[in-house]
Amino acid sequence: MNKKGIAFLFFLISTSFLAFAADGDTKWPQQTVESKPWTRWWWFGSAVDETNLTYNIGKLGKAGIGGVEITPIYGVKGYEDKYIPYLSPKWMNMLSYTHNQAQKWEMQVDMNNSTGWPFGGPDVTPDNAACKAIFQEYRVSGNKETNLKIRVYDQKQQSIARLSRLMAYSDKGKKLDLTTLVNPDGILKWKAPKGEWRLIALFEGRTFQQVKRAAPGGEGYVMDHLDANAVKNYLQKFDNAFTTSQTPYPHTFFNDSYEVYGANWSPTLLEEFYKRKSYKLEDHFPELLDKGKTDRSRRVVSDYRETLGEMLEENFTQQWTNWAHAHGAITRNQAHGSPANLIDLYATVDIPECEIFGISDFNIPGLRKDSLIKKNDGDPVTLKFASSAAHIAGKKFTSAETFTWLTEHFRTSLSQCKPEIDQMFTSGVNHVFFHGTPYSPQEAPWPGWLFYATINMSPTNAFWNDAPAFFSYVTRVQSFLQYGKPDNDLLLYFPVYDIWYEQQDDYYLAFSIHDMKKRLPKFYETVEKIRESGRDVDYISDKFILSATVENGQIKTAGGTTYKALAIPAAKFLPLETAKKIYELAANGATILFIDQYPDDVPGLKDWEVRKNKLKKLVNKFPHVDFGKTQVDKPGKGNIITGKNYNELFEAAGIQGESFITQFNGQCIRRKNESGYHYFFTMLTNNPIDGWVQLAVKATSALFFDPLNGTSGKAMIRDNNGKTEVYMQLQPGQSLLLKTFTNEDVNVPTWIYYQPAGQEIVLENGWKLSFIESEPAIEGTFDIDTLGSWTNLTNENARKNVGTARYSITFNIDNLSADEYWLRLGDVRESARVRVNGMQVDTLFAVPFKTTVGKYLKEGENTLEIEITNLPANRIADYDRRGIVWRIFHDINIVDVNYQRTLYDKWDVVPSGLLGPVVIKGVCIKNNF
Fold this sequence. Notes:
Blueprint: H1 3-22, E1 38-44, H2 50-63, E2 67-73, H3 89-104, E3 108-112, E4 120-121, E5 131-141, E6 145-149, E7 162-170, E8 175-177, E9 187-191, E10 196-206, E11 221-222, H4 228-245, E12 252-255, H5 269-277, H6 285-289, H7 295-326, E13 330-333, H8 342-348, E14 351-357, H9 380-393, E15 399-404, H10 414-426, E16 431-438, H11 467-481, E17 485-486, E18 490-493, H12 496-502, H13 516-519, H14 521-532, E19 537-540, H15 542-546, E20 549-551, E21 554-556, E22 562-563, E23 565-568, H16 576-587, E24 591-595, H17 608-619, E25 631-633, E26 639-643, H18 646-652, H19 659-662, E27 667-672, E28 676-682, E29 689-694, E30 701-705, E31 712-714, E32 717-720, E33 723-730, E34 735-741, E35 754-762, E36 767-775, E37 781-784, E38 802-813, E39 820-824, E40 827-829, E41 831-836, E42 839-844, E43 850-852, E44 860-869, H20 873-882, E45 913-916, E46 919-925
Parallel strand pairs: 1-2, 1-16, 2-3, 3-12, 12-13, 13-14, 14-15, 15-16, 18-19, 18-23, 23-24, 24-26
Antiparallel strand pairs: 4-11, 5-10, 6-9, 7-8, 7-10, 17-27, 20-21, 21-22, 25-26, 27-28, 28-34, 29-33, 30-31, 30-34, 32-33, 35-46, 36-37, 36-38, 38-44, 39-43, 39-46, 40-45, 41-42, 41-44
Helix pairs in contact: 2-3, 4-7, 5-7, 7-12, 8-9, 10-11, 16-17
């Protein structure tokens, strides 16, 4: 770099610090413990000790982890004598010690309210265990004496199942409750009236589900989440343990995804159903069980599903949250998997948490792809259930279980992590929890203690020395996404009653993360069309519509978040109360979009014809329209806009799309702050940008912030026919933050744009390679003519090692005439630390693996050193070939992405090292826009 360029950049950097110090609006947001990434911390058998707790916490804190969530699980073979029973006095002492050690690193500690998952354990009696309905049928002819043994057929259930109802239904439509006619021995003596009778017995059985992956002291039945007393009894053991030990309560109590399999009943369900629906469910057992053959049966099933969901919300989720609040803690919950409206469940807790499960397929050139993968079930449509609930309820954080089964064991690179987490950020996530970090004692031989499901975000992973750069990236992004307020364009009604009516495989319906697209095909299509149009949405439930208000023409939810419009998708069913509220919102100034049709039916059975007629009368007040074309009508102060074309609907509503999405196929999220707005942009497709990008908001000035390296500067913007455009340079795989100022022209150094300057140095020959860390060891220095995988070396250990190798080369530059120089590493397997002339430059962990090096170069001879860390895949494959025992865990031990026990001895050798090409490219500062 020439002296003039150096002086100019030094001026920019120095004045940048001065400006940022003087003006908080132009600085990076303050980093907090919450803005750092957190992690789920597996305690194997709770075989922890003070020495190794100190070691593990220190490693995490030093690397940049902000907090841990303790989840005890099954133990390690050979360590049985070190197991500590869950909630025992010694266990509570270890929790207290952990809390104290975490404070030294300014970390926080969360705690699962169970070992493994779901909630349960040894104190859960059969009466409080997860419940299931057992229906048995009998046929009886009238005018005959009946002497029937009414006993559950399943022998496993016979000691526990209780007869709740015995109902008789005649072929003439009569219903009789015969329950009291069954004697204590289970014998029904009854003379049936004339006709043919269908008898249905309901037994309250138990699922007998045990806590999955339980730790010592946590084994036992899964509790009945639908029963308020069962939940209250379960939480009592925590009161006892914390009170007795005087251990501080954790920052947050956590509940994992709802995997309470087959728990479709609870002893109070019939009572709760009658209280909520004003008719007896037992009068309609035939409809409940006939898999939706008639409209009437579908209505009964819908009522059952709604009741079940409300019981789960009130008896478990709300009670659990109230209990935590009473102890000065908060709750974090994964609602997916629940048989309920997920929006309402997520909104009930303090931190809604979603998850990704598998890996997404991004079209990013140079992004390494692996064949041993599972497709990600946690796509943006699914992730947004949690973030939507957080936004409409006014919750600051949306957390995510991050990277579950991103790859097969030992095959995870940080370069694969970045695009996945970027997609989560654009879906509203702003508080990530890695899945996960095994507690592993310092003395444990490699690969240490491992959880059965990836990834392994821990000090035993080869990439750990490079992970702080990734953690810093996450922290910078989250510092932006945690401040301000959401600014998604519109609310989208979640048509849960249509789903409850249509999905009739079984009367019990859970919204598992693995089945969401199957359960919600029409809703998925709607959300994807809206997002493809450049607009963003938050989902809203009936409950939150009922509490919404209108403020300055915008819809304001109970959490204080405002939206430009409410969209009703092609929903058939709408509760009468919701329809009335929607009409009221429109009359008071809100904009309502009806897509494809007006709702024309009401959910549920009770008085449905009466309610349906009332709905039709209300809908008749709406504009009479042809949905084939877009039409705007004004009932009162607001707008009702109807049609099928999404772009036309949104344009009619005055909702501008983001061209970053529509024109460049990128992903972004926008939030608002006191000065204007801020964006997170990420390019997860092969669409490089070097040009003007129109924003959906107006700005007088704007700043770019680079979350990879912490730099920032004033962006070039312009007004184009009343629209604000920003000049952006973004390569596939890259991301940027942008902060706009609506009315202020901030005075800070400009963002530096570059363009090619012609000078390019391709470093092809003359490389030297040596291993600074390797297991097994590889001695000596290798001269390599052409960059490639170090597994091609003649040393046999190079095909089976894990470690870090240093690539070094000396080269000459005669004239540093460019303003800046870019170093591009090409294909990196898997992360790189760069030094130029002995000075540390950067840690590169993601595509496009490039950084600026101009200030480190000099005219004449230069030395470039690149330290590459590979995957541990080759090492573990060698372990399996040699029969080394490292799968030492109880329970499920270690499985592959398909949950099969497997060996890795047949794996092909995975490329390792610097594959290149390595290029130093001169660039000049771009001034022509």
